[in-house]
Amino acid sequence: MEHPTRVNHINQELIDILSGATALLCSRSFYAAAFRIPFIVLRSRRIEQQALAITRDVFDTCSYVCDTGACAGNLYTVVKSTRDNLMRLDEKLTGLPFPFTLYRSWVDKSLTEWDDLAEDCLISSDKDIRAELNRIAALC
Amino acid sequence: MTISVNRPPSFARQVKQILKQFPRSAAHLDAVISGLAADPGQGDRYPGFGAFEVRKVRVGLPEYRLGQGKGLRLIFLYLPAKERIVPLVCYLKRDFGSEQAVRNLIYAALRQI
């Protein structure tokens, strides 16, 4: 079982890399960005996969030990922040010429995963939705 | 052990609405919903419900070349003690960052059950 502190740490590391990549794409030097982006993307891809696996692991573990969904609520802030940074990077990559187009499919795939996770965290920790689910389960 | 899938009327209405947009996927979607009984442990489990399980599965629509990522989301309730599955909400994956809108959609759908 992964510890939530590890989740915060690895997500923060990923956020720093993603915001660095976004800042680089905002800079006016096309060639500097084109040269450095592949290395940044490779590094962020590795960390992103680790971060996703660890965060999902915490979420899945929570589903067996938690009674209130509170830990999913705590995860939401971290996951949302990572997802938002991926969105910003995706926006910057959109419309850029080759070779940046190569990285869009990876960012898009990652975004789907993080967006789903953000959705899961929000929905499973929402009190109104939880109350409705408990009501329906009692009815059935 | 035989698990039954009980579709509430509000869920059937949601599916009907979705199929207006994706009519060629009717058989596929029906098979996915019925197939929940064969593997009730599929998808991501939402935490904190103890005696019952709430899960979300991603459904691709191959007829429209939509993979699981861009396809439908199906949330269902699994009551192991009663050997029953109740599909709750079905919706099309929206734009990134719209979880509040999804939350409102799910809440509205649950209130109709």
Quickly list its features.
heterodimer, A: 140 residues, mainly alpha, B: 113 residues, alpha+beta, YaeB-like fold, 5 strands
Topology record:
The complex is a heterodimer of chains A (140) and B (113).
Chain A: H1 4-26, H2 30-65, H3 70-93, H4 101-125, H5 127-139
Helix pairs in contact in A: 1-2, 1-3, 2-4, 3-4
Chain B: E1 4-5, H1 9-21, H2 26-35, E2 44-46, E3 53-59, E4 72-79, E5 84-92, H3 99-111
Please tell me about this protein's structure.
- The complex is a heterodimer of chains A (140) and B (113).
- With 140 residues, chain A is an all-alpha fold.
- Chain A has one domain (4-139).
- Chain A has five helices and no strands.
- In chain A, helix 2 packs parallel to helix 4.
- Chain A is elongated, with a radius of gyration of 18 Å.
- Helices cover 32% and strands 26% of the residues of chain B.
- Chain B has helices at 9-21, 26-35, 99-111; strands at 4-5, 44-46, 53-59, 72-79, 84-92.
- Chain B has a single domain (4-111), classed as YaeB-like fold.
- In chain B, strands 1-5-4-3-2 form a five-stranded mixed sheet.
- At the A-B interface, helix 2, helix 3, helix 4 and helix 5 of A face strand 2, strand 3, strand 4, strand 5 and helix 3 of B.
